[in-house]
Design goal:
Layout: H1 2-16, H2 18-36, H3 39-64, E1 71-73, E2 78-80, H4 82-102, H5 116-134, H6 139-157, H7 164-195, H8 200-208, H9 215-232, H10 242-248, H11 251-277, H12 287-313, H13 318-338, H14 348-377, H15 388-391, H16 393-407, H17 413-427, H18 431-457, H19 472-490, H20 493-500, H21 505-508
Antiparallel strand pairs: 1-2
C-alpha cells in the first residue's frame, strides 16, 4: 500500500511540477554542456539555451492557469493554483529579460568574462527558488525556496571575483541576508511551537483560536517574519544592503534582484500574512491581532515610501538611485497587503500584480539603458546621461518613456498601477496612507525628471562610447520594456480583466 501511494504521488508531482523540473533539468544540462564546449562557443550558446529553458517553463505555467481546484503535491506542502502561477509567470518573464539584456554584451562581466556561462545557468535555480516560495503551502518548503533563491543570489552578486565592489557587495548581502533568513526561521519556529504543524492553513486555525497566554508569542512570530520579509523586498528600515549591493553587482543581476527577488518576497509575504494572520474562518477570528498585523504593514509601507524617495533625492549614482527607487516602490507594493480583504475591496491581488508587472518592465528597461551607458560613464553617474539625446536620440526617447512610467506620469503603466492601489486604500478608508502615496509620488518627480533634464537640456563634450554600438539584444530589451509600459498604460484593463477572468480569492489564495 505504501508503494502505491508513493507511485501515485510521484506521477502527480511530475505533471504538476513540470515548470520547476524543466528548470532543474536545464540547469544540470547547461553545467555539463559548458564542461565540454569550447569557452568561446559556450558563452552565448548557454545564454540562449537558458532563455529557451525559461520559455519552456513559461509554457508549462500557462498550461496550469485556471485549474478546477488547487492542486497539492509533495505531501500537501506544495500548492499549484492561480496565485502562484501568475507570480511564476512574472518571475520567468523578468528572468528572460535579464538573460536577453546580457546576451552578446561582452562587457557586462568585464573582469571575469570566463564566468559568463555561470551567470546564465545560475539564474535558473534562482528563479526556481522564487517559484517554490510563492507556491509553498508549508513553512519547510517555503524556507527551502527562500534559501535556494538567496544562496544563488549571493553567488551572482559576487561572481565578478576580481571586482572589489562586487566582493564587498556580496559580503554585505550575504551577512544581512543570513540574518534575515535566521529571523524568518526563528519566526517560523514560534508558529510551529504554537500550532504543532508547519502547514499554513492549519497554523491559521491555531493562531486565530489561540489562548490569550499565547498572544505574545504570536506577535513575536509576526514581527520576526515581517523583519525577514522586509529585508527580502528591501522595504525601509530593512533596506540598508540594497544600494551597495545594486552598485557592486553587475547590472543584469541588480535588475534581477530589483524585480524577481523583490517579487518573490512580496508574493510569499502575501501568502503567509493572509494564510496565517487573516481569519480564514470568521467564527475563530482574532480581530485585535488582525488589526495590529495590517496596521503594522501599513506603517511599513508608509516608511518605505518616505525613506526610499528621500534617499533617492540625493543620489548621483544611477544604480543607487534605482535602488532607493525600489525601496519606495516596495512601499507602494505593500499597500495591497495592508489594505486587507473586505466586502467592498477584494481586488488586492489584482492591484499587486498589475503594479508588479509595470514595475518589472520599467525597472528592467531602466537598468538596460544604464547597461548601455556603463562603458562610457564608468561608475554609472547620472551625469553620464548628459546630452544623451544628441548622441543617441532613440535611446533617450526610450529612457524617457521608462522614467515617465517610474514616476507615475498619467497614461503610463506606473500611473495606473499606483492609481489602482490608491483607490484600494481609499476604499478601506486608509486615507492617511493614500495621502502619503500621493505626496511621495509627487516627490519622486524631482529625481526622475532630473535624468530627463540631463538627457535633453545638457550637452556632452565627449562622443566616445556611442550607445548605438550596443548589442541588438540589449536594444530589444530596452524597447520591449519601454513600449510595454506605454501599452499597459493605454490598456490597463488587459491584465486586470485577465486576472478577474480566472482568479478566485477563496480558491486561489485561501
Amino acid at each position: 500500500m505504501v508503494q502505491q501511494e508513493w507511485m501515485g504521488l510521484a506521477l502527480g508531482d511530475l505533471r504538476q511540477l513540470a515548470p520547476e523540473l524543466s528548470l532543474v533539468i536545464a540547469f544540470v544540462l547547461l553545467i555539463m554542456l559548458e564542461l565540454f564546449l569550447p569557452r568561446k562557443v559556450s558563452r552565448d550558446l548557454i545564454g540562449w539555451l537558458a532563455l529557451a529553458a525559461t520559455a519552456i517553463a513559461t509554457v508549462f505555467v500557462l498550461y496550469q492557469i485556471n485549474p478546477p481546484a488547487p492542486v497539492y503535491v509533495l505531501g500537501q506542502s506544495y500548492r499549484v493554483d492561480d496565485f502562484s502561477s501568475v507570480l511564476k509567470l512574472i518571475f520567468l518573464i523578468g528572468t528572460s529579460l535579464v538573460i536577453l539584456m546580457n546576451l552578446g554584451h561582452g562587457h557586462s562581466l568585464d573582469d571575469d568574462a570566463e564566468n559568463k556561462g555561470e551567470f546564465y545557468y545560475l539564474l535558473l535555480p534562482a528563479v526556481l527558488g522564487a517559484m517554490i516560495m510563492v507556491a509553498s503551502a508549508d513553512l519547510i518548503t517555503l524556507y527551502v525556496g527562500l534559501e535556494l533563491l538567496s544562496i544563488t543570489s549571493y553567488i551572482l552578486v559576487g561572481i565578478r571575483r576580481r571586482n572589489h565592489k562586487a566582493n564587498e557587495a556580496a559580503f554585505k548581502y550575504l551577512v544581512q541576508g543570513g540574518i534575515s533568513s535566521a529571523l524568518i526561521l526563528y519566526g517560523m519556529s514560534f508558529l510551529y511551537g504554537i500550532s504543532g504543524t508547519t502547514v499554513l492553513n492549519e497554523i491559521n486555525v491555531s493562531v486565530q483560536g489561540a489562548d490569550t497566554s499565547l498572544q505574545p508569542m504570536i506577535y513575536v512570530a509576526f514581527f520576526l517574519l515581517l523583519a525577514g520579509f522586509g529585508f527580502k523586498i528591501a522595504a525601509a528600515p530593512f533596506h540598508t544592503w540594497v544600494a551597495d549591493t545594486y552598485e557592486g553587482a553587475s547590472t543584469p543581476i541588480a535588475a534581477f534582484l530589483a524585480v524577481v527577488s523583490k517579487g518573490a518576497g512580496l508574493g510569499i509575504a502575501f501568502r503567509v500574512f493572509y494564510g496565517v494572520f487573516y481569519p480564514l474562518y470568521s467564527e475563530t477570528g482574532n480581530s485585535q491581532l488582525q488589526g495590529d498585523v495590517f496596521l503594522t504593514l501599513s506603517i511599513l509601507a508608509a516608511t518605505a515610501m518616505v525613506v526610499g524617495n528621500l534617499l533617492a533625492l540625493r543620489q548621483k549614482n544611477m544604480k543607487r538611485l534605482l535602488a532607493y527607487s525600489g525601496v519606495a516602490n516596495a512601499g507602494y507594493l505593500l499597500v495591497p497587503l495592508a489594505t486587507q480583504f473586505t466586502s467592498v475591496h477584494t481586488s488586492n491581488f489584482s492591484e499587486l500584480v498589475y503594479y508588479l508587472v509595470a514595475y518589472l518592465f520599467m525597472t528592467i528597461g531602466a537598468f538596460a539603458v544604464v547597461m548601455m551607458l556603463e562603458k562610457k560613464i564608468g561608475a554609472g553617474l547620472i551625469g553620464g546621461f548628459s546630452g544623451l539625446y544628441h548622441r543617441a536620440p532613440w535611446t533617450a526617447m526610450a529612457m524617457t518613456l521608462l522614467i515617465l512610467s517610474l514616476a507615475g506620469f498619467p497614461v503610463t503603466a506606473g500611473f495606473f498601477g499606483k492609481l489602482f492601489i490608491l483607490l484600494g486604500a481609499v476604499q478601506v478608508k486608509l486615507y492617511w496612507l493614500a495621502i502619503i502615496m500621493v505626496i511621495t509620488s509627487i516627490l519622486s518627480y524631482y529625481y526622475y525628471f532630473r535624468i530627463v533634464r540631463q538627457m535633453f537640456m545638457h550637452s556632452s563634450e565627449e562622443e566616445e562610447g556611442d550607445t548605438r554600438r550596443a548589442p541588438w539584444t540589449l536594444v530589444l530589451t530596452v524597447w520591449v520594456c519601454a513600449l510595454t509600459g506605454v501599452g499597459l498604460g493605454f490598456y490597463p484593463q488587459v491584465i486586470i480583466e485577465w486576472l478577474q477572468s480566472f482568479f478566485s480569492l477563496g480558491m486561489d489564495l485561501f
